[in-house]
Amino acid sequence: MYKVTPNPPEPETDPKKLQEAADRTLDYYLNPKQAKSENKPSPGQLFTVVDGIDTESLLANLSETLASADAMVSDLAFDLKGTRRHVALGILQLIELSGLLANRLLDSVNP
Q: What superkingdom does the record give (predicted)?
């Protein structure tokens, strides 16, 4: 059976267009563009919180961070003497209070 087909198109032989296409392809794979952040952090900012994290995860991480700070200050406070110990115990009490508030909020978010 004979099927009539149109002639295939002539290949493009313009060297300038071929070079541009090759450069675009190489740039795409070898020099990828960095994703642009909408919110630029200030120059002195070292840490950021990723967008889109749910409240429960944030509160759970806050509770764990406060528990770690509590353990560190507690260990330090019992190695100190005098007014330095009182300052460390005051910081420890503030951390424990913040932990209680965070845990209460975490309980109310996910009963």
A: Bacteria
Indicate whether this model's pTM tops 0.70: no
Would you say 102 and 63 are in contact if contact means Cβ atoms under 8 Å apart? yes
Average pLDDT of adjacent 10-residue blocks, the chain of 111 residues: 69 79 85 67 77 83 89 89 91 88 79 58
Contact 77, 89 (CB under 8 A): yes
Q: Is residue 41 part of a domain?
A: no
Find the domain containing 86 and state its range.
Answer: 55-109
**Overall number of domains in the chain:** 1
Quote the tokens at residue 110: 């996910």
Longest dimension (CA), the chain: 104
